[in-house]
């Protein structure tokens, strides 16, 4: 009966988003309160449970997500992203153009949130397609595959960052493992898959052409690459030091301080403010305006994350999470596959990768302590599942269709199939890593 009530709560969430077209944050709140009543939580405790869940999850994430948005906006507006794309194109040339686009999406996608990266980089792909007289889909799919993978697998993107916090995983290790899976996933779902798409007809609208900066207005290569990837360098570097070298006293405290994801992002934004901002004659007023706009861009994402935390807390306070965990012990299925499968089903039903990942986290969290599963791999397994088969209920589906100006049929056989490849290959990568970790 308990499992049925949980499924009913999730079904209500799905219907509110898909059928009633309700904002996901409102849908989460309504579903959380409804779940509290259905599962027998005393009425006077439901509001407190919702508030506690929102506060606990956001407390760990606000700095990471907001600072990540600010850094991404800075990289985009300063011309750093364009410099990275141009440099990679010059290195790879026309023969390996799809690999250049995939690497561009991977590098620029790390600090940029998905929607920002899409709007920024897709017009650049159109420019490349026009220059070399080739299909925009052939050029664009590798780019979008890389953006999708970074969005689903790698912190500081909202869903993986939130999952790290919920499962008490190590963000540096998750990022390292994520890279190991990301590279083959992007290669197969991007450039290799794109070889089958050379004849897909696309007529990008002129509205979506990028505002290309002149060469003299772009930052240098070193400045662009280092600033964009600084959070990665700091997270992976401090994790490697703590795992491979014995430190003590003040040095240990310093490494512990710097390795905190929030501090990593603050340091990166402060350095970027100088290297891509003040040093290049942006005024402080201009920079703060950019950061304000960046915060507006991700405000709803923060609220959706908070809503997912509320539902998770209701499940926890009613004891449902433990009941589900006990029930799942009897399933003859690897916990990483189970987490992926639950996430994939919710993703197909709801359409949002973030909603799917965070909803699954509330259900699957007890597995971290009750079963022998690495929390870092659990984050990546859910991240892979959250990208499964994007279709009509996903905003990304329609963004792709309208930007590339392709038919529904071609959108499904290019975009939707690419997202499915990312999800499946990502799971295979997680299971392979699980053998060795």
Can you walk through the features of this model?
This protein is mainly alpha-helical and 437 residues long. It has one domain. The chain is 78% helix and 0% strand. The chain is built from 21 helices and no strands. The longest helix is centred in the first third of the chain and has 35 residues, at 43-77. The radius of gyration is 21 Å and the shape is globular. The protein starts with a helix and ends with a helix. The mean pLDDT is 86.
What percent of residues are in strands?
under 5%
Count the helices. How many? 21
Order of helices and strands: HHHHHHHHHHHHHHHHHHHHH
User: From the structure provided, what is the oligomeric state, counting identical versus distinct chains?
Assistant: single chain
Structure classification? mainly alpha
Q: Round the Cα radius of gyration to an integer and report it.
A: 21 Å
Distance between the amino and carboxyl termini: 37 Å
- Residue stretches low in confidence (pLDDT < 50, at least 5 long) are none
| Main sheet properties | none
InterPro entries: Glcn_transporter
Protein name: Gnt-I system high-affinity gluconate transporter
Main location: membrane
Keywords: Cell membrane, Membrane, Transmembrane, Transmembrane helix, Transport
